[in-house]
Amino acid sequence: MNRRSNLKIVLLMLIVLAGIAMLASLSRTTTAAAAQGRIAFHRNLDFSSDIYVMNPDGSSPVNLTQNGARNESPSFTGDGAKIAFDSARDGNREIYVMNADGSAPENLTEDPANDFDPAFSPDGSKIAFTSLRDGNYEIYIMNADGSGQTNLTNNSASEFSPSFSPDGTKIVFESNRNGGFKDIYMMDAVPGSVQTNLTMSSGDETSPTFSPDGSQIAFASRDIDFDWEIYVMDAVPGSARSQLTSNLDGDFAPAFSPDGSQIAFESDRNFTDGNIEVYVMNAVDGSGQTRLTNSPAYDSSPSWGILSQPNPDADGDGVPDATDNCPLAANPDQADNDGDAQGDACDPDDDNDGQSDADEIACGSDPLNAASRAADNDADNSPDCVDSDDDNDGVADTADNCQFSANPDQANADSDSQGDVCDPDDDNDGVADTTDNCPLTANPDQADFDLDGIGDPCDTQTGPPTNRDQCKNSDWMRFDTPRRFNNQGDCTRFVTTGQ
User: Which domain-ending residue is among 251, 270, 305?
Assistant: First the structure.
């Protein structure tokens, strides 16, 4: 073979290798692109555990529970909006449900026995779970609000780890009714249905889960070397199984990605560093096994859900806008002093007294106490300290000669800058208006010749009579001082004679 032939062979091999590399790269890219949604898992550290969610590549883990109790076994609804989990926060293990962001956790079972291993039906209407309430571990089902809790298995053996089929009509679970070994069984999701052994082996199988299309079941099984590995099989009794993992340690709790292309699982293959971690692999052949978590805690029980439309939380206070009493202003404790359904953080009047919080604070009154209203002269709910027209007469306080008494025409008889309606001495003669016989005309000595109560400076008829007309009828009495007229005749005589 000449050198040219050798060169052709080498080039051909390089082309083939490059093609293989491109296909592998494309496969990895396609798989990575398909790996959407969120992975929930529980992280166990220091005798407590919490539910976390993370991206499918292991990034951005977020603690959803954070209550110091045992919170385990998360399960997404089909739309990814809610998560069921079991928690011992109330003293024993109960089934809880919460929003996918960790908000609004609710105890659904409230039973003195332990309830755990919840699994949502794909449509979110049902939850299957394991319970010890009948003296042994049984598979129960209930509505998503906790009502209708019903025993499905009614068997003297122990059953665990229920999982719904994609159409919600069937449930797979593990049971040790087969001579003490754990097998995978399947039943209809209704009481009294036939329970069929799918694996029928002399080993142990656990943690079954349906593929998204319902055609396969993934599970963990202990092989002849007593190592727990992940397998898949068709969802029919006795079908052949395919082994996806193979290592000297344990792999458990498989969970399909929403599109079925990958499987997340827990593994203690790195138990030398003291950890159980969450891994992911290709669902077809187990290739690309990749560690997602890396913490000093045990990370277990993955559940893979789609990205739901999150409950909008515009102010980022952890309260969804739909229930937030201040959706655009952070109010995480939902404080509402006056109980008007408008949170304090966005309520302009927290005590509902008609005066704004800002005005009350500016005027030194308590914005949370309706009995502590700031002074408001014109009762327009604008406190005097911030009201530009305290008497509401249309004249700004800065120009009003009677700031607290309506004086729209700004009358000011004595031109002393204090309007007549609020000036106690309108003529500035030193005599208060309340006793002044000429309140608008200075009359400091209060002269009143005719003693008619109208001071001389403002009395149109003052002094002694000057003609007979002024002595008509009873008018003479007006001139009774300083001369005393006993009658009309005396008045007329005075006019005539001056005597």
Answer: 305
Last residue of a domain, one of 290, 305, 320: 305
Contact yes or no for 302/35 (Cβ under 8 A)? no
Q: Is 456 helix (H, G, I), strand (E, B) or coil?
A: helix
What is the rounded (10 degree) CA torsion for 476, 482, 483, 484?
A: 70
Specify whether the backbone of 258 is left (phi greater than 0), alpha (psi in -120 to 50) or beta: alpha
d(CA 319, CA 308): 17
Does some domain include residue 411? no
Residue 209 lies in a domain: yes
First to last CA, the chain: 170
Residue linked to tokens 């962001």? 101
Q: What is the pLDDT of residues 256-285, one digit of tens each?
A: 999 999 999 999 886 555 689 999 999 999
**Residue 262 β-bridge partners:** 282
| CATH at residue 163 | 2.120.10.30
pLDDT for the residue numbered 22: 42
pTM for the whole structure: 0.58
Q: Which 3 state secondary structure label does DSSP give 272? A: helix
* pLDDT, average across residues 67-74: 93
Domain count within the chain: 2
Which residue do the tokens 């120009």 mark? Answer: 399
Give the domain extent around 485.
Answer: 464-497
Q: Which residues have C-beta within 8 Å of that of residue 207, sequence separation ≥ 6? A: 161, 174, 219, 220, 252, 253, 254
For residue 385, report the phi and psi dihedrals to the nearest 5 degrees: -70, -15
